[in-house]
Amino acid sequence: MIPLYALLRAALSGVQWLFAAKAARLERKYAKAASAAEAVARQLQTKPGNGTQDPFATAKRHYGFGRLVETRDRLEEKFHAWQGRAEGVGRASATVASWKGRTVPYLCGAVDLGLILTALHSLGFPHGLTFEGVQAWAKHLVG
């Protein structure tokens, strides 16, 4: 009963850690993309000299800036999604932790009973268990 509970807690903690690590990696990528987009935005704000401006070069710079902004926004959405998943698993882990002493004995006892009945069924016990039937089955296994 307790090993099942401990396994569930460990699994939820592991999943939460994985999701939080993914969110942290995405946050670092987002910060890098945001700083790159900000640097390009600062370059676009400076006015060129009095010479003739090449409209194609300007369009190319604006297009590159747009791609950087799209990448930044996509990474931001992914980061928030993974962070939300990590927080959701954390809430589930906290909920399971609050079961200790109240629900765990009953829930795990029911799961244990189900596992035992499944094992007995797979070993060939008949559905109508009687003492004589169990005795015959045990003699069949031993002898």
Walk me through the structure:
- By secondary structure, the protein is mainly α.
- The protein has one domain.
- The chain is 84% helix and 0% strand.
- It has 4 helices and no strands.
- Helix 1 packs antiparallel against helix 2.
- It is rod-shaped and about 105 Å long.
Question: What is the structure about, briefly put?
Answer:
With 143 residues, this protein is mostly helical.
Spans where pLDDT lies below 50 across 5 or more residues: none
The profile of the biggest β sheet is: none
Number of domains: 1
Helical residues, percent: over 70%
Kindly name the structural category: mainly alpha
Specify Rg, calculated over alpha carbons.
Answer: 31 Å
**Which range does the strand content fall in?**
under 5%
How large is the count of helical segments?
Answer: 4
> How many β strands by DSSP?
0
Shape verdict: rod-shaped
Q: Which sequence of SSEs, written as H and E, runs from N to C?
A: HHHH
Task: Name some characteristics of this structure.
4 helices, 0% strand, mainly alpha
Strand and helix layout:
Elements lengths: L1 H44 L9 H44 L5 H20 L7 H12 L1
Helix pairs in contact: 1-2
